[in-house]
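ok so i was messing around last nite and threw this chain in just to see what happens. nothing serious, just curious
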Amino acid sequence: MASTTAKTFSDALASRPVRRFQWITVTICLFILVSDGIDMQLLGILAPLIITDFGVDRGTFGLAMSAALVGFGLGGWAGGMMGDRVGRRYALAAAAIIFGIGTIAAGQAGSVGSMALWRLVSGIGFGAAYTNALTMASEWLPDRLRPITVSTLSVGTPIGGAVVGWVAPALAQAYSWRLTFVVFGIATLFLIFVILTVLRDSPSFLIARGRKAEAQAIARKVLDEDIDLVPERHRADDGSSGAVGVLHRSNLRMNVGVCTSFTACALVAYAILNWSTTFLTAAGFTLAQAGNAVSVAGITSMVAAIAAGFLSRQFGTRGVMLGISASLFVCIVALGFFVETLSPTPSATERLIVVSLIGAAAAAFSGGIATMYVIMTHGYPPSCRSSGIGFGIFMSRVGAVSASAFGGALLELGNGSVIPFFAVLAIGAILVSAASFIVDNHMPAAGRANPLPA
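result:
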């Protein structure tokens, strides 16, 4: 029997169990992000072989290494806008084509310049895939599961990095680094068939774009009855349209808060991950000991990212971001102090303290990044959710590139001291709290109302 009650798709999902189609959608989005991580990390894993083959030094090869990072930021924003215009499904298919072909082409590169070009192209696909996969998965789930799922999906890329770290070296040794790129690129292209045949844009997105009949039909995949679907309400709703652009005045505080916090969080993250081995070996660690610290950071990052979803659901994203900012500040200050005061040959206890602090800092900034995704999927309306997430990804790349480009200069500025380096990171940790004070559409704590802002 058809229902005469008008509801948003989110309201309709709220009291219903999650159906198989929803879990299949989330699983496919996870596979896309894992594949994204595999192709994204592939060059870093095979870099020693390629540097030898090209006959260049590591400094020259850095151009190719950073190209995908730049492309990721550009692709995140451009892909987000594409997802809001043509739909998440087609944007995901286009992204898979771009980074699949880019990966295959990178395997044919004969110079650093051509490798950098194809990695830039691949990076655009990486960013577009990341943006739209997170958006699509979040829109098919009820609010009660959205923060946990989004934060869990955010570790898909590091999982892909772990997979390629196990598989790629053996494949390259048995065949060649060029064939390894081709194999992973072709595997990515198989995702296109799955995306186009299985995935569907959410009713929330479709109805926000004025495609009500299509939204009603697709909603039947997960609802037991026909419901008169209406657009998701938002602060910008003036009764004339459900479509709101990411630069609409109603999103001003979201945009400013996301810009500040996400940039600062990524700056701290990439500074620690990219420069830890440098400042630790300079302080007396062996390369193996310094590498162990980065490995610990990778483990704590994945655990914290998943935990951030549970905490956001239980306590609300405003309080979680404030707690993360304070924790990150304490970790950075303590880490800077201990590294600065290390013995010329650090003892086992000193090394344990430093590694533990790096792991704690990684947990904090990874939790912050995961919580930012929860904030964006909740705070931006369906009509511009992909663009909003894409904007956040773009700003995070600004922080990442800044850390990669200027971290070494800050360490050199200290002339043997790490104080300038960690002073900048401490300021970044404080700026992470901007999301708590500026963003005006946080996910509330469980059991609390989420009133529509005036």
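not much to say yet. Confidence is low (pLDDT under 50) at residues 236-241.
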